[in-house]
Amino acid sequence: MSVLGPVFKRQNGQIQPYISLGPFQLRLPFIHYRFELADYLQGLIMCAVCLGIIPILQEYLGMPFEVAITVVILNGFFYLWHSHLGDPVVPGWITPAIPLLLLWLKTFPEGVPRMHALIAFELELGLVAFFFGVVGLAKKFVDIVPDALKAGILLGAGVAAVRLVFDKGGRFDLYPWTCTIALGSVFYILFSNHFKTLRAKHTFFKHFSDLGLLPSMILAIIIAPLLGELPWPKIEWGFTVPQFATLWTQWTPFSDRIGWPPLALYLSALPLVGATYIVLFGELIQAEALVDEAREFRHEDEDVHFDANRNNMIVGIRNVAMSMIGPDLSMCGPMWAAMQVVECERYKHGPEAMDSLVGGVASFRWGTFTGYFLAPIVSLVKPVLPIALSLTMLVQGFVAVRIGILKARTFNDLGVAGCVAAVLISRGAAYAFAVGIVLCGLVYGKDFFRKWNKYDKVKDPVFNACIAPEPDDEKHLPNQ
Description:
480 residues, mainly alpha, disordered N terminus
């Protein structure tokens, strides 16, 4: 039931107060949720990760820094829509799909043709996401895609992300020592079994790990100048002044310089839109799982749920809007996974730590949005923005490959996935989809139309077939 009143009037076990707007639940700061200072302060610093897309906007689109940060600010404004329209998540980029988009955009000449391709792709992605959210087709779309094809897309996205960092002449070659140390530290903090042991035993390391990529970012700011790979930050005081006029008149489809893309580009972008949506849907599954897990700790206190269709609608609106007023290579995704984990963990500690999950994620995104405007923070991280993007890409690559492998249910799935991933990286999404469909048809035959989400690999004859031993291993086999 809709309630307009102080946040403190929420009944135990009930939904957070809101104003009903059709499928959306409008919540206003200080009225419908408690402002969480701790989350706001963390967002204030973590805006540095969001700024990491600026070097890519400069490199691939030729945007000046002032225009690129204006795009980031616009994206940050749309981040606020999720929590204020009833979506209890920290939204972010569609990070695993960024390398796929960059590979596709490289096939277009830099300048107006590349901008047209980006605008067509982002607009089409937004329309697809919004439509699937409205009619509730999100889950059905992904269910009909074979696991082998899904695994291949995720594998390809992961490898492409890693390649973006380690390409010859790329960021690793430019800043080898800073990348090595920063990447090593972030993998140790996020994935090391040894650090997990320390986290379980010591409160300090638990809070330290909750900072995600931030410790490695601070480390990069210090060591890069000491190693002579990047300059020391030149702290500037004051506020960032967005260049909305320049962005509107020089970089949007409404400008005379850019204009609207031809129809053919919308058709050529369709395969990449399909691949990106599969990646996007994987994030929807993660978001639902994280919110459900958090609710189990507070089910007697607050009733909070993740609605994939509502999330899809908001994601669709964001992408359509950005394609028109600030085309963005990071795209508008459903969740920033690392920070969603941090927010859900804080929420589990009870109302004293975080009154409502909606309030926590909203306060965090208010923090990042504020940080974009503070010149001291922007100038502090500006030199290491290429390192920030490298950290994000490599972590996403690691996770995408891991999830892609787990998506495969049989040995044949893995074989098809490897081929699809290789074609995706070398020839793009259209060829990858074609190769994947043909291979699945040849390998699975009539089983191509099985219910892949319920498929039992135990009954698969290929999965259970004996793998022939290597010739050198025959002597180790028991006598027949």
